[in-house]
Design a protein that fits this description.
single chain; mainly beta
Length: 111
């Protein structure tokens, strides 16, 4: 079955950086688009960034210029580099592929 395992979350001060990883198994990774989503307390889950199998990317307006999504097909892993973090980026971040979700990783940005 499909398994997505996120890692790399944590507590960081505003202005800092984190890199999230999502390791995928059970799918032919290189053929799949991948997405990073986040859900803050009391809010709906939202798309943060996506990357197609061909490497095209898209971002939520709120993270453009600060976050970067990339993939390593040899490692079946997708990354989310998050720079210049803001308190409003605080959320649980989830990886998604083929309609499947990972367990999420908490990102907390202190002011």
């Amino acid at each position: 079955q499909v398994q997505l395992v996120e890692s790399g979350g944590g507590l960081v001060q505003a202005g800092g950086s984190l890199r999230l990883s999502c390791a995928a198994s059970g799918i032919i990774f290189r053929f799949n688009g991948m997405g990073w989503y986040r859900q803050a307390p009391g809010k709906e889950r939202e798309l943060v960034a996506g990357i197609t199998s061909g490497g095209s990317t898209n971002y939520a307006d709120s993270v453009k210029g600060r976050f970067g999504i990339s993939r390593d097909n040899a490692k079946n892993t997708v990354y989310l580099q998050m720079n210049r973090l803001k308190p409003e980026d605080t959320a649980v971040y989830y990886c998604k592929a083929e309609g499947n979700w990972g367990q999420g990783t908490q990102v907390t940005v202190s002011s």
